[in-house]
Specification:
The structure holds two protein chains of two kinds. By secondary structure, chain A is α+β, with helices and mostly antiparallel strands. Chain A has four domains: 305 residues, Nucleotidyltransferase, domain 5; 77 residues, Actin, Chain A, domain 4 (Alpha-Beta Complex); 123 residues, Substrate Binding Domain Of DNAk, Chain A, domain 1, CATH 2.60.34.10; 88 residues, Substrate Binding Domain Of Dnak, Chain:A, Domain 2. Chain A contains 16 helices and 27 strands. In chain A, the strands form seven sheets. In chain A, strands 1, 2, 3, 4, 11 and 12 form a six-stranded mixed β-sheet that branches. Chain A has a five-stranded mixed β-sheet with strand order 18-13-14-15-19, sandwiched between helices. In chain A, β14 and β15 form a beta hairpin. Chain A is elongated and about 95 Å long. The relative contact order of chain B is 0.10. Chain B folds into two domains: 105 residues, Helix Hairpins (Orthogonal Bundle); 112 residues. Chain B has eight helices and no strands. Chain B is 61% helix and 0% strand. Chain B is elongated, with a radius of gyration of 24 Å. Classes of the chains: A alpha+beta, B mainly alpha. Chains A and B meet through α11 and β19 of A and α2 and α3 of B.
Chain lengths: 613, 244
């Protein structure tokens, strides 16, 4: 059955659709030709385009290989690993231990990169890389290219996804879809093998780690669970090598490399080259030449693997979490695919083998799989490929702040997308016309421990007594994994659309911690939650009691009214003390002493309404 | 599916939202997808008020669902509704795809998970845990006794965790807990069967009966949750006590 119905065509599709792997260290573009993915060639005939921008090359700004050549000689003007900054706040960066040789400054809480007398956001730098990729694709294909599928780490949050999409738009791309890197890789894996069953994708990239479990069945690629760490990658392996070099250089030369941007860049550069050499050779030489001095050091694979071990161990927890979320054992998997340059390392392969108790699949090209998959998804979107379909999930739970600083979960992690959740809000005070809504992403119970995605206000609510207004807010996570929010007044039917502006606000150091600490801290969170619940209940009863106290004088004997007043004070005191038991007991007493008052008031209301009718 | 009434299509003949072709008049007739998708023009149909998590997956309201059948239908429907299939379509067609696919995803997620499924059925039939507690009283005495036994045992553990007597008592307690939970699960399962069997027997009006079955089930679910909370508490405790 053909599903390309002319009836609904927006416009005739303009030119080919490409798939882009926008990586931390390297980027690639691919396209489907005769049903097979092909990686497009850069100006200098390479598959990989270094994700590096140099603002002051001899012939003006440049991107890619030429920029990489200037990384060491022109440190101040060369920006790399910008994906690590994308969609993050300055606060996040301060908390992560990332040390970059280029200058990063704060501007209204956001990260700006200073180059000369100009500052650029991470989105703008990414856009420059994406524009280079566009020119490269047009040159290779010989036609204008404007539509693309761009990949992101599966564990990217909403802000990071939005930032990626914005960068694409800035670069002149029509971004048809944002897809997850491990999911894309699975498409490339399953394209011609027509493999079936449960597979795992272990994706250790330049700056991010993703782990996804999928079910492949008759062309359907269904993600069962995903997890990861958005600040863990090959960069960290370079850094452990650089750390050793830094210590040794300081000892012999008396110079701290972090005070010398050029030296810092040179050390990072040779650390990366050493790491790549060690993926094929048992030993290699690291060499840094700076101001006529030469630093040399021989590294053995074993030595490097010992240092890499703590970094690799950080990938184990996300793997086990995803298996648990999917309700699977490692032995249920029929294959484990490796994605990302660092997975070439012997130590990584061994570690993966240890986690899953099986030899991982090394027959694939770990650098190109993601771009190939993005191209396949582009082919699916163009309507050419009707066989395959991706069914993906949200990586992190979405929730709302409720009374008392607690997050109420709205869309749990690993929910299939697109998905929708509705929540009805009401007003707390009489004639209130606005309601604040705070959307969060993460696994913890307390607001401050999660990533703040957006604050927004519902306005223009009809002024009514407290609790009468009914505003339904719809939270939709689209197929890109990006949140859209809309609101509707259920009484008037008036719709209100809200744009969720990413707040980049809270520390993202926690994003990686969120899942694991969500479990570790469950207990203290529960204590806090319990207190808030008890307090909310106490405050509710207090409000009602205080509202009705004036009438109490007319229906109750003075002594009884006095008792109620005493207990009201007791409840207030207990709330101050923040003691769960105390609040509970006092609230129970208040309930007890107001029983007769409530009864009398209800009776009176009923008799009044009977008289009226 | 056995006793599902098949008369709906005759009484109500929906047409495609856009091209006005009769939706039940094509090759997909009698298929659960027929009303959800126009196979003539490819438009995903808007969600109708009478549609629910069961109907979009070709099911009637029941518990004994076959996961493999559900999965097959979910995949088939996904192939038709998913936004990836409407990348070149106009925005109205895209919006319809988005809303139906979201609904389908939720439906599948709910029907696949026995606990979520029960919650959904309770809600559909107007059974709420709070009002149920008022109507039928609280947790049965014997379950409360289990909880009390657990609190006593905790004290003993704190005093002499290593003593053989306490270890033995703890093992016995855990066994009782497991055994009670298994019994409740069995009970819930038999109630689910009962509900599934009686629901579509049209000779007798048994809506009242099936409601009673659901209420009983809701009570058992409540009891199960109660035991689970003891179990959670135990998990936290046993982490502190070694050699269990």
């Amino acid at each position: 059955m053909s599903l390309q119905y002319k009836f609904f065509k927006k416009t005739e599709t303009t030119g080919p659709i490409v798939g882009i792997d926008l990586g931390t260290t390297n980027s690639l573009v691919a396209i489907i030709e005769q049903g097979r993915p092909r990686i497009l060639k850069s100006r200098d005939g390479q598959n990989l385009v270094p994700s590096i921008v140099c603002f002051a090359g001899p012939q003006g700004p440049c991107v890619g290989t030429r920029a990489k050549q200037r990384r060491v000689i022109d440190v101040q003007n060369t920006v790399f690993s910008v994906k690590r900054l994308l969609g993050r706040s300055f606060e996040d960066l301060k908390n992560s231990k990332v040390q970059l040789p280029y200058e990063v400054v704060e501007q209204e809480g956001l990260i700006q990169i200073r180059v000369g007398d100009q500052t650029y956001s991470a989105i703008e730098i990414s856009a420059l890389i994406l524009r280079e990729l566009k020119e490269m694709a047009e040159k290779d294909l010989g036609v204008p290219v404007s539509q693309a599928v761009i990949t992101v780490p599966a564990y990217f949050n909403d802000s990071q996804r939005q930032a990626t999409r914005t960068a694409g738009r800035l670069a002149g791309w029509d971004v048809l879809r944002i897809i997850n890197e491990p999911t894309a890789a699975s498409l490339a894996y399953g394209l011609d093998r027509k493999k079936e069953g449960l597979i795992a994708v272990y994706d250790l990239g330049g700056g991010t780690f993703d782990f996804s479990i999928l079910k492949l069945h008759e062309g359907i690629f269904e993600v069962l669970a995903t997890s990861g760490d958005t600040s863990l990658g090959g960069d960290d392996l370079d850094r452990v090598i650089a750390q050793v070099a830094a210590q040794e250089i300081e000892k012999t030369w008396g110079i701290c490399i972090f005070d010398e941007p050029k030296l810092h860049a040179a050390v990072l550069d040779s650390a990366e080259r050493l790491k790549i050499k060690l993926s094929t050779e048992p030993q290699a030489l690291m060499q840094v030449i700076w101001k006529g001095q030469t630093y040399e050091r021989k590294w053995t694979l074993e030595e490097f693997e010992v240092l890499a071990q703590p970094i690799l161990e950080r990938t184990e927890k996300p793997c086990l979490q995803a298996l648990k979320d999917a309700g699977l054992q490692a032995s249920d998997l029929s294959d484990v695919i490796l994605v990302g340059g660092p997975t070439r390392l012997h130590g990584v392969r061994q570690f993966v083998q240890k986690i899953f108790g099986r030899v991982p699949n090394t027959s694939l090209h770990p650098d190109e799989l993601v771009a190939q998959g993005a191209a396949i998804q582009a082919d699916i979107l163009s309507g050419n490929n009707q066989e395959l379909l991706l069914l993906d999930v949200v990586p992190l739970s979405l929730g709302l702040e409720t009374y008392g600083g607690i997050v109420s979960s709205l869309i749990p992690r690993n929910t299939r997308i697109p998905t929708v959740a509705r929540e009805v809000f009401t007003t707390f005070a009489d004639f209130q016309t606005g309601v604040d809504i705070h959307v969060l992403q993460g696994e913890r119970e307390k607001v401050q421990d999660n990533r703040s995605l957006a604050h927004f206000k519902l306005v223009g609510i009809e002024p009514l007594p407290a609790g009468m207004a009914r505003i339904e807010v719809k939270f939709l996570v689209d197929a890109d994994g990006i949140l859209q929010v809309s609101a509707k007044d259920l009484r008037t039917g008036v719709e209100q659309s809200i744009e969720v502006r990413p707040s980049y606000g809270l520390s993202d150091q926690e994003v990686q911690k969120m899942l694991q600490s969500g479990l570790e801290n469950a207990e203290s969170d529960l204590g806090f939650r319990r207190l808030t619940e008890v307090r909310n209940e106490a405050e509710r009863i207090l409000r009602v009691t205080q509202k009705n106290l004036p009438q109490a004088d007319q229906v109750l004997p003075p002594a009884e009214v006095e008792t109620i007043r005493t207990v009201v004070t007791q409840v207030q005191e207990e709330i101050q003390k923040k003691d769960v038991r105390g609040i509970q007991d006092a609230t129970a007493r208040l309930n007890q002493v107001t029983l007769r008052l409530a009864e009398l008031l209800i009776k009176e209301t009923i008799s009044r309404s009977i008289k009226q009718s | 599916m056995r006793n599902e009434p098949v008369v709906v299509a005759v009484v109500f003949q929906p047409k495609c939202f856009r091209c006005q072709v009769l939706l039940s008049g094509d090759s997909l007739a009698r298929d659960f997808l027929a009303h959800q998708f126009c196979s003539s023009c490819g438009l995903v149909q808007p969600l109708a008020a009478e549609e629910n998590y069961f109907s979009v997956l070709g099911e009637t309201c029941r518990f004994g669902l076959d996961p493999e059948v559900l999965e097959k239908r979910f995949y088939r429907a996904s192939r038709l509704f998913h936004p990836d299939r409407f990348s070149n379509s106009d925005s109205a067609a895209q919006a319809l795809s988005l809303s139906r696919m979201s609904f389908l995803n939720q439906a599948y997620q709910t029907l696949k998970n026995p606990e979520a499924l029960r919650e959904y059925v309770f809600k559909r039939e107007g059974i709420f845990q709070e009002s149920l507690a008022q109507k039928t009283g609280q947790i049965p005495i014997e379950l409360i006794e289990i909880a009390e036994g657990w609190f006593e045992l905790q004290d003993e553990i704190l005093e002499e965790a290593d003593s053989l007597k306490v270890q033995k008592k703890l093992r016995e307690f855990l066994e009782t807990l497991q055994e009670r939970k298994a019994r409740i699960d069995e009970k819930i399962l038999s109630l689910e069967k009962k509900y599934d069997e009686r629901k579509y027997d049209e000779k007798n009006d048994d809506s009242k009966f099936s409601l009673l079955v659901l209420e009983e089930m809701a009570r058992e679910v409540q009891n199960k949750n109660y035991l689970s909370s003891i179990e959670k508490n135990r998990d936290r405790m046993t982490q502190n006590v070694t050699s269990i």
